[in-house]
């Protein structure tokens, strides 16, 4: 019995060494790519040219005449946000219930942190409020619930 186990051990050892040598030979002889990697093409437009969406930056002017008419341009600072529930501080109601966090923090007037991955919102004083990195910031719990979030249990 011991003699059979010894032979199996040596056979396995030789097989492992042979496999290692074969794998090293394969790595040495695999084809090398020529030049930089090729990326998939952009979507083609109807005239056959390629296009991509232009990058949007924080300070861009309003994109269409409707935005220009009501003054609802991009948010460039906390002062542009105005009071919760208003559009740019002019007192008119806004359809948007939430704002983007700035530098990982919710702006003043929007203390409720929403997490898209879990669908949970955190209120100040909650157990995990300080640890939560917001993806959306809400002024009221009703706004967060209207967007489909639920309150954190802890």
Folded structure, characterized:
By secondary structure, the chain is an alpha+beta fold. It is built from three helices and five strands; from the N terminus they run ααββββαβ. It has helices spanning 2-28, 65-70, 141-146; strands spanning 98-99, 112-115, 120-122, 136-138, 150-151. Strands 1-4-2-3-5 form a five-stranded mixed sheet. The longest helix has 27 residues, at 2-28. The protein is elongated, with a radius of gyration of 29 Å. Mean pLDDT is 75; it is low at 55-62, 64-74 and 85-93.
Secondary-structure map:
Layout lengths: L1 H27 L36 H6 L27 E2 L12 E4 L4 E3 L13 E3 L2 H6 L3 E2 L3
Parallel strand pairs: 3-5
Antiparallel strand pairs: 1-4, 2-3, 2-4
Q: Please provide the count of β strands.
A: 5
User: Can you tell me the residue ranges where pLDDT is under 50 for at least 5 consecutive residues?
Assistant: 55-62, 64-74, 85-93
- Calculate Rg over CA atoms: 29 Å
* Helix-strand topology string: HHEEEEHE
- Helix count from the secondary structure assignment: 3
What is the rounded distance between the termini? 62 Å
Mean pLDDT: 75
Envelope shape: elongated
How is the biggest beta sheet arranged? 5 strands, mixed
Structure class: alpha+beta
Proportion of strand residues: 5-15%
- Which sequence of strands runs across the widest sheet? 1-4-2-3-5
Helix content: 25-40%
What can be said about this structure in brief?
The protein is of the alpha+beta class. It is built from three helices and five strands, in the order ααββββαβ.
Top keywords for this entry?
154 residues, 5 strands, elongated, 5-stranded mixed beta sheet, 3 helices, alpha+beta
């Amino acid at each position: 019995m011991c003699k059979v186990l010894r032979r199996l051990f040596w056979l396995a050892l030789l097989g492992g060494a042979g496999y290692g040598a074969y794998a090293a030979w394969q790595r040495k002889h695999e084809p090398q790519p020529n030049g930089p990697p090729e990326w998939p093409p952009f979507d083609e437009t109807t005239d056959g040219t390629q296009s991509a969406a232009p990058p949007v930056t924080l300070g861009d002017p309003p994109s269409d005449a409707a935005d220009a008419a009501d003054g609802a341009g991009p948010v460039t600072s906390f002062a542009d946000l105005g009071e919760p529930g208003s559009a740019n501080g002019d007192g008119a109601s806004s359809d948007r219930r939430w704002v983007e966090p700035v530098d990982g923090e919710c702006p003043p007037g929007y203390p409720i942190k929403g997490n898209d991955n879990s669908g949970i919102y955190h209120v100040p004083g909650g157990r995990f409020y300080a640890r939560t990195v917001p993806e959306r910031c809400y002024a009221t719990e009703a706004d967060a619930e209207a967007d489909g979030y639920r309150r954190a249990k802890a």
